[in-house]
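hey m, so remember when u said the tokens were messed up on ur end? i reran from scratch. heres the input so u can diff it against urs
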Amino acid sequence: MRVVFIGTGDIAIPSFRWLLDAPGIEVVAVITQPDKPVGRHQEIQPPEIKKLALERGVRVVQPLKMRVPEAVAEVQTLGADFIVVMAYGQILPKGVLDAAKIACLNLHASLLPRWRGAAPIQAAIEAGDVRTGVAVMFMDEGLDTGDVLLMREIAITPDETGGTLHDRLADLAPLALADAVALLREGRAPRTPQPSEGVTYAGKLTREHGQLDFSAGREVVARKVRAMNPWPAAVTGIGGRRLKIFSATPLAKPVLAPGALQSREDGLLIGTGDGCVLATDVQLEGKKRMSARDFLRGQAALPAAVEIAN
């Protein structure tokens, strides 16, 4: 089977590796986003999936926009039996979807139709979901609206972060893909339309999504901290500087006013709408990431409260 893989995010790498090593599958090309500047010095870097493709001798295509006629025509010349997509970052036009002789499949990191869109992992944690998974669907022109071939579930642990759940779903995805390919080869692949009930959306993450609202309940604040770890990181203001918070335990007592600060031997207490959270892993703007205990040792005086953003 000739397969074209379309993806950019690191979550797609285990699935791409599975395709590279699977018997009877030839990955004829990888389509990924253009190289872009990253880091403090904004050095141009290729996506990790491009690096792996070049190491394995796979052709790499990097159109600026997949919807332009030239990009669509190039995909159509590849002669793909299957197109497999995960974490690409662009909506694919009909000409690309129809370029696969058998199927164009998308691996999506949620239990559809819950959390369609760009950031389902963070959304599931922030909402307090207890389960998530990977859905394999037949792609259509909508945003994650295609018929579902299969879904594989995992539990979201009480201490789950955006980073840990990302990695667990990355590992689950190739298992789901392997099952889906087997069903397609056997001619037994189901096509289950997504229900109209239970549809939710998770838009693209920005730095602004990390802003904490301490008037919310302690569990809500703690889930947001976990969901935004490691990026964009939950953030508040203290002493005129941004303070990123990477770990926060919800506590019923002591009861502090929303945003009020209190130091403790094991960390920094911050008041919420119904108690407080204990921050233990932080990073002050311009400083390295450190324990809250070390952060407190470096403070000559602790402000009375964080600065609530308007």
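this time it looks ok to me. Residues 162-186 form the longest helix (25 residues). if urs says something different then somethings off w ur setup not the seq
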